[in-house]
Amino acid sequence: GGDHTITYPILQALAAKHGPVGLVHVDAHTDTGAGALGEKIYHGSTFRRCAEEGLLDCGRVVQIGIRGSSYEPDPYKYCREQGFRVVPAEQCWMKSLEPLMREVREQLGDKPMYISFDIDGLDPAYAPGTGTPEIAGLTPAQALEIIRGCKGLNIVGCDLVEVAPIYDVSGNTALLGANLLFEMLCVLPGVKTL
């Protein structure tokens, strides 16, 4: 729940315990903006603030499903400079993400990592109830492949953000979000599933 700023204090607490963590970040946006309306902390700056504070193990950050509007001519420049791997949505279209997740698992290794899932990473055809929808996003099946692809990693926490009930007239976004959170709980270390 909440907007993506909630991930910032969570990662502060996790980094205090584990040191810098890896990150699987599913989103339509990189959330690495410098600021907005004179504020440094907002839902579009979360991962810039985290990188600046050393909360992330930047060589173990993967952002998946990125697309949509930007204020920069090279919207992934900051991410690349930090060492993040950016996987734009168009690299995910019409294919299974299992091969990608094998690469991600190898990149993340066995050190602590976090999953942060913005519901707008999914196409608004499936999840319209969000404040910043962007067309041409991921499918629910691809979302499951990403989450299930994290099973066995050293997951120290996870979140699902940006569900906006006021825009969710069908209830589909809430249903999808709840199921994705359930899937995240199922891949946490020590959880036994069938």
TrEMBL record:
InterPro entries reported in the protein's UniProt record: Ureohydrolase (IPR006035), Ureohydrolase_dom_sf (IPR023696), Ureohydrolase_Mn_BS (IPR020855)
Pfam families registered for this protein in UniProt: Arginase (PF00491)
Family of the protein in this entry: Belongs to the arginase family. Agmatinase subfamily.
Name the UniProt record assigns to this protein: SPEB protein
Annotated signal sequence range: none
MF GO annotations: agmatinase activity; metal ion binding
Record keywords, A-Z: Hydrolase, Metal-binding
Organism: Erithacus rubecula (European robin)
Entry's Gene Ontology BP terms: putrescine biosynthetic process from arginine, via agmatine
